[in-house]
Amino acid sequence: MNDQAATISHAKDTLIDLAIGFGPRLLAAALILIVGVFSKPFRVGEYIAIAGVEGVVESITLFNTKLGHVDRSMVVVPNRKVVGEILHNYGRIRQVEVSVGVAYESDLGGVIELIGGVLRANPRVLQDPPPVVQPMQFGDSSVSIAVKPWVAVQDQVQATGEIYAAVLAALRARGVVMPLPQREVRLIGQPA
Q1: CB 118 within 8 Å of CB 170
Q2: How far is 155 from 94, CA to CA, in rounded Å?
Q3: Closest to 55 (Cα-Cα) out of 73, 31, 28
Q4: Minimal CA–CA distance to 137: which of 113, 112, 101?
Q5: How far is Cα 165 from Cα 163, in angstroms, rounded to an integer?
Q6: For the segment 45-88, what is each residue's pLDDT rounded down to a tens digit?
Q7: How sure is the predictor about 116, in pLDDT bands with cuts at 50, 70 and 90?
Q8: Tell me, what DSSP letter sits at residue 123?
Q9: CA 112 to CA 118: how far, in whole Å?
Q10: pTM above 0.70?
Q11: Which structural domains are found in the chain, ordered by start?
């Protein structure tokens, strides 16, 4: 009977030691799991930037989150890196950023309307939220026009190329001048 009592006492002491040693870790893991199940800051299909990487969320597992890139590469982010990091969740749409330089003599209102027509004609460009088309910067030889339409995440690369090509074609067809940067170089000690 004493052997049985000693075995039970030893098992009890071992369990207490294990609870003290691993209890806080198990409790923390359970809390992270519960918070993760009920408080997801992103979902599959959304475009996010976190822990220095970005991409479309392909899958979320207990141990990691897989992000897909437009170059078809995959980034695996350990979930321990996700907790406590700054997260930028773009959602399911992205804003394309295109810049076009036109001559200072150009009719800016006409150019903006022309670019707006190009955007309305592109099926990848979302009309809600509306695209942004406006003068952005005075350059050395041109006025920069910001062209920022919204597209679905999966259409970002294709839409960017299509928009550049269509805007260039429309400006050329309308005769809008897109000046090349020019520099004058003078050598010191040489006559002007």
Answers
A1: yes
A2: 9
A3: 73
A4: 101
A5: 5
A6: 888 888 888 888 998 888 888 998 878 889 898 888 777 778 88
A7: very high
A8: T
A9: 10
A10: no
A11: 1-39 (no CATH), 40-91 (2.30.30.60), 93-174 (3.30.70.100)
